[in-house]
Write a structure and sequence with these properties.
Blueprint (H helix, E strand, L loop, with lengths): L1 H15 L2 H20 L1 H17 L1 H22 L7 H32 L5 H32 L4 H8 L3 H24 L4 H29 L3
C-alpha cells in the first residue's frame, strides 16, 4: 500500500506543478461550452469547425492531436530548455506526435461509441455516465497504457529489450499509477466539459485540453528519468 501511495503522489506532483494553468484552461473550456448554449453567434462561429470535424472524421482527430499534443508541446519544451535541440530531440517530438495521433484511433471511436451507447443527450446524468465510463474503464484499463508504453519506449532510447524489462519491473506501480493519477486530475473535470458538447465538437475541445495534458505527461516522464525508476 505504501508503494501505491508513493506512486500516486508522483502523479500528483506532475499535476500540481501545472495545477493553476490547467484549471484556467478547463475554466475557459467551460466558458466556451456555456457560450455555445447561451449565444447563437457562438454556435454559428463553431459550425465551420463542426463541419470540418464531420467531413474529415478520424483524419481530423489524428492530425489535430499530433499537432496539439505532440508538436506544439514538444517545440515548447525545446524552446524553454526542457528538451534536446539535436536530431534526437526532433525524433522524440515526431515519435511523441505519432503516439498521440495513433491514440486517437481508439479515442475517436470510443467517443462515437459513447454517443451511440448513451445517446447524444447532454443532460447531467448522461454527461456523468460518459465521464465515469471514460475515466474509470476506457482510460484506466486501456488508453493510459498505450500512451505509457509509447512514452517509455521513447525515454528508453527506443530499446524494446529495455521496455520488456521495464514491463516486468513493477510497471503498474512505477508507471501506470503516476500517469493515471495525473490523468484523472485533468480529465475528470475535462471530460465533464467535453461531453457537454455535441459529438462533432467534443474532439476539438478535447485536443485543446490534451495540449496542456501533454505538458503534464512530459513532466511526469522527466521525473521518472531523473529518478531512474525504470
Amino acid at each position: 500500500m505504501k508503494r501505491i501511495l508513493e506512486a500516486a503522489h508522483e502523479g500528483w506532483l506532475g499535476a500540481k506543478a501545472n495545477l493553476i494553468p490547467g484549471l484556467v484552461i478547463i475554466f475557459f473550456a467551460a466558458l466556451l461550452v456555456a457560450a455555445y448554449y447561451a449565444f447563437a453567434s457562438v454556435r454559428d462561429a463553431l459550425e465551420g469547425l463542426q463541419s470540418l470535424r464531420t467531413a474529415w472524421g478520424l483524419g481530423f482527430s489524428m492530425l489535430t492531436s499530433a499537432i496539439g499534443a505532440g508538436l506544439i508541446p514538444g517545440l515548447y519544451l525545446m524552446a524553454v530548455g526542457k528538451g534536446r535541440h539535436d536530431g534526437r530531440g526532433f525524433l522524440d517530438v515526431a515519435f511523441t506526435s505519432l503516439v498521440w495521433a495513433t491514440s486517437m484511433i481508439w479515442v475517436d471511436n470510443f467517443y462515437n461509441f459513447q454517443d451511440w451507447f448513451w445517446g447524444p443527450s447532454t443532460t447531467f446524468g448522461i454527461v456523468i455516465s460518459k465521464m465515469l465510463l471514460d475515466q474509470f474503464v476506457f482510460t484506466a484499463f486501456f488508453s493510459i497504457h498505450y500512451v505509457a508504453l509509447g512514452f517509455r519506449l521513447r525515454d528508453l532510447n527506443y530499446d524494446f529489450k529495455s521496455l520488456g524489462s521495464a514491463l516486468r519491473d513493477d510497471w503498474i506501480i512505477k508507471v501506470t499509477i503516476p500517469m493515471l493519477v495525473n490523468c484523472w486530475l485533468t480529465w475528470i473535470p475535462g471530460t465533464l466539459v467535453i461531453y457537454s458538447l455535441p459529438l462533432p465538437l467534443q474532439i476539438p475541445l478535447m485536443v485543446l485540453i490534451q495540449c496542456f495534458f501533454a505538458l503534464e505527461m512530459a513532466f511526469v516522464s522527466s521525473k521518472m528519468k531523473a529518478s531512474s525508476v525504470i
